[in-house]
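Retro notes (design track)

What went well: tokenization of the new backbones is finally stable.
What didn't: we kept losing track of which sequence belonged to which structure.
Fix going forward: every design gets posted as structure first, then sequence, in one message. First example under the new rule, 81 residues:
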């Protein structure tokens, strides 16, 4: 699927995977696309680095808008020769 804006992606998807530089970047994207009105019935999977407090805050924010939330992490290992 190709979408022109984050709002179009959110509107047309049931599961959203977010992996940005930090939680502040996620907040900017969600605020700019007015995600408040688009999250009902959707699942947001957050893979952005942050603190447990930030994860709980985002979970409460998503659930207050009728969505479900899953927080995870990406672990990138180094290759050693």
């Amino acid at each position: 699927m190709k979408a022109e804006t984050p709002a179009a992606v959110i509107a047309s998807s049931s599961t959203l995977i977010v992996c940005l530089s930090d939680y502040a970047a996620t907040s900017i994207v969600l605020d700019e696309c007015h995600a408040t009105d688009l999250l009902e019935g959707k699942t947001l999977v957050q893979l952005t680095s942050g603190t447990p407090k930030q994860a709980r805050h985002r979970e409460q924010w998503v659930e207050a808008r009728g969505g479900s939330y899953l927080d995870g992490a990406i672990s990138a290992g180094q290759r050693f020769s």
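Added context from the reviewer: Helices lie at 6-12, 23-32, 52-64.
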